[in-house]
């Protein structure tokens, strides 16, 4: 069965520093991949998605992610963290052969220090 | 575009009450809608998948008679928590998807349900 691993339940960076949130998937067939952000007491907002076009995907709020098939990874990055980036981030995959279901990672809480 | 509205955002009620949560896609027709439950500091747990005009497909361990889902139109799905008890208190989130594979799910803002 498809699974998603997000390394690090918490990541803390200084404002202005590089943000790197890790995501690895388990499928041998590249799935559809998504990153979502969740602010407290809110739903999820789509940051970006990979569906088989360019391997470097640019999203909203300055985030981007690179799909690496050899590493089965889809890590999320942002060159310079802003205080407003503090939130919970979820990586999710959708199997190309099944329904539209999403399999979510356990989430990573990003903390941004002033 | 792709806005999903969920209502109410917060509800507090007594044990034994039934609570209905609405999920609407405002600017697109949703072929499929999903209902999730999220416990504090945890990821989302899929409860059921809902397609317009057909019965919802529930995930293993989710009680169909407890969590009634109705997907009456391409823009509206409802989740009714029947005879709610304190253990049903949680954050419930819906999402909707339009069209084909690879399209992202668009999420509502969630409903915080507190059963006294």
Notable traits:
heterodimer; A: 114 residues; mainly beta; 6-stranded mixed β-sheet; 4-stranded antiparallel β-sheet; 12 strands; 0% helix; globular; B: 116 residues; 7-stranded mixed β-sheet; 52% strand
Please characterize this protein's 3D structure.
The complex is a heterodimer of chains A (114) and B (116). By secondary structure, chain A is mainly β. Chain A contains no helices and twelve strands. Chain B has no helices and eleven strands. Helix content of chain B is 0%, strand content 52%. Chain B starts with a strand and ends with a strand. In chain B, a hairpin with a 5-residue loop joins strand 4 and strand 5 (44-51). Chain B is mostly beta strands. The A-B interface holds A 32, 34, 36, 41-46, 49, 51-52, 90, 94, 96, 99-102, 104-107 and B 4, 6, 32, 34, 42-44, 46, 49, 91, 93, 95, 97, 101-110, 112.
Task: Report a brief summary of the structure.
The complex is a heterodimer of chains A (114) and B (116). With 114 residues, chain A is an all-beta fold.
SSE topology sketch:
The complex is a heterodimer of chains A (114) and B (116).
Chain A: E1 4-5, E2 10-14, E3 19-21, E4 24-25, E5 32-38, E6 44-50, E7 56-58, E8 64-68, E9 73-78, E10 87-94, E11 103-104, E12 108-113
Chain B: E1 4-7, E2 10-13, E3 19-25, E4 32-38, E5 44-51, E6 57-58, E7 67-73, E8 76-81, E9 90-97, E10 106-107, E11 111-115
Parallel strand pairs in B: 2-11
Antiparallel strand pairs in B: 1-3, 3-8, 4-5, 4-9, 5-6, 7-8, 9-10, 9-11
